[in-house]
Amino acid sequence: MARNNYAALEHMLVKKFNYKGREIVAQFNPCRYRSAVAGGDNASQREHECFLCSAHQPHEQESIIWNENYKIQINPYPIFNRHLTVSSIEHRPQAIVPYIDDMMSVAAALPGYVLFYNGPKCGASAPFHQHFQAVPFSELPLCREAIHDDCDLSVYFPFFYIIRPTKKEAKLWFHIIEEGLHEVFDTGEEPMQNVFCWSVKRQMHIIIVPRSKHRPKCYGDGEDELVVSPASVEMAGVWPMVRESDFEKITASRLQSISEEVTISEDDKEHIIEYFITHTK
Hints:
Layout: H1 2-9, E1 14-19, E2 22-28, H2 33-37, E3 64-66, E4 70-74, E5 84-88, H3 100-109, E6 113-118, E7 131-136, H4 141-146, E8 153-156, E9 159-164, H5 167-184, E10 193-200, E11 203-210, H6 232-235, E12 238-241, H7 244-249, H8 252-262, H9 266-279
Parallel strand pairs: 2-12
Antiparallel strand pairs: 1-2, 3-4, 4-5, 5-7, 6-7, 6-10, 8-9, 9-11, 10-11
Helix pairs in contact: 5-9
């Protein structure tokens, strides 16, 4: 199955747009259908149905065990030619704050890759099992564009981009932004977000994409709707389209509009920035 899906990438239909100086890529990728329609409902969170638990995976699927806590595997439903899943060996719910150290450590151990995290309510196809994914850095437009900024903390509406020389400092700034998110979205749950992390030139890089909602108003399988559930990869500029009809009619302006709809407002962004400035003095 994985062999067939990776072979299909070689012949995948792709559209590339330049929208106001930013690259946006749309691809026709029907093997991502399960991810596009996945939700975080309680019925899907039972452990005996978890496809990331080793007991329920095909016996052919091999793993590299990392630090006794994670397994690194080929993602059988790829978006890119090198697409990995990094999942906890233990079955535990998807979360970012308790595991940001793990994310940075794996990123440091995978040079040339970007790790990304989909929150349980904004893109995770397995919200019931802690995991990250990893893809080549060169494949994600947002990361390529952001790295040219020399600031320690950059704000690309509505993204927050941290660059620090040590994991300890990056973790501190990450937690301050997370506290700011909790103050803005006081729900008692993890704020909706997508997170990217990579290590290059002895520096730790983290991009946080706060989210206001999972799916846009246009989501659906009707003729005038789109089967799109934006997650990390979409927020980074690559949009797998699972229906050919959606791929044929999609435009850069519509994808940008969807991205803006599911992220936070300018006011919320400014509140988080003020919180960060106040708590780093």
